[in-house]
Amino acid sequence: MNLDLIYTELIAEHSQYSPYKGELEEATIRERGHNPSCGDDIHLDICIEDGKVAKMRFHGVGCAISQASTSMMIELLEGKTVDEAMELAETFIKMIKKEITSEEELAVLEDAMTFQSISTMPARVKCAVLSWYTLKKAIEKL
């Protein structure tokens, strides 16, 4: 099976059937991310317990790229410390900006590495990074 096809299927699966969609009543942080150029509007609900991302959910509207990126981000970050979450967000953003290209360094992103090729599609970059910047903004308020 072709790697591009696997990535396409992974993005489709996360955007359409994410188990992380919905609101989180026990959220300790809520943050909205909005991309006015395409209309993506994501709300992150984050529950921080003992310095860790205990649980996250998202709701809102957006393209398949923004929805899948958010879903993969949550899958990666639940259970991580707040510091680890910030480091992973930085790594993802640097990957999209082509500041980190080493497969070895990017392996920490797990499925989110799928978006590495997005950097060649300028119109989609903002879609892929929206939730990651929104997460950083939320955590900086702690």
From TrEMBL:
GO biological process: iron-sulfur cluster assembly
Stored Gene3D superfamilies: 3.90.1010.10
Source species, domain of life: Bacteria
CDD domains: IscU_like
The NIF system FeS cluster assembly NifU N-terminal domain, residue ranges: 7-127
InterPro entries, per the entry: NIF_FeS_clus_asmbl_NifU_N (IPR002871)
Protein name, as recorded: SUF system FeS assembly protein, NifU family
